[in-house]
Amino acid sequence: MTTAPIPVRAPQAGGAQAPRPDPAHAKISVRDLDFYYGRAQALHGISLDVPERVVMAFIGPSGCGKSTFLRTLNRMNDTIPGTRAEGRVLIDGQDVYAPGVDVVELRRKVGMVFQKSNPFPKSIFDNVAYGLRINRMTDSKSELQGRVEEALKDAALWGEVKERLKSSALGLSGGQQQRLCIARALAVKPEVVLMDEPASALDPIATQKIEELIVELKRQYTIVIVTHNMQQAARVSDRTAFFWLGKLVEVNETERMFTNPDEKLTEDYITGRFG
Q: Does residue 274 surpass a pLDDT of 90?
């Protein structure tokens, strides 16, 4: 089977290859997951492993279940009345839907960045410090300042805002606001970062910065990204999962997915025959 190739991200500088997944040591393991909005079933029997410290991309046409599935990983769908999940979602071997799970702690461990940047109407500093303060994660003003600076550096934003930390976050550009939201998520030291189309509303230059940041962040975090942009998935991800009508059609190494997929339906979508 052959397809029209999409350029795949080159190996990292210095000859380092992207880490190969080891399903036996998955950071996230999903087994037989069904999900419902009331009586309507949105996900059907999803089983998937996400290895630690890789970028996993979810692709597929609109309405195929990508974002719904992403939100099951930190139970964000719990905020929608009438929803329910059946099956298992394991993070570090612990079922996040088990009775007694602390959902606040889960969402600290599994952070999320949304499609539209959503900075609070506060200063740049206070945006990043927000989670640290409400979770009482620092013991002193100097520690708080250090954690904010570290998060802004991790989000590749420190150099652009260090002289105006007291200024309103709403004065930042769209791309800067999205990186600020990433910094806010990183400040509480998550282990997994979920990103739901984080660059879809940005211009090409801002998008490039977000993509470069994603590749850099996997040195410290497990990243799961939903994207409609297949070229973006090819550039930033190590593994890609293709969803269709609420089902997982294929999950594979990104290079193979875009050059020689296992499933005919995957090939048809990637080559533009539908979607």
A: no
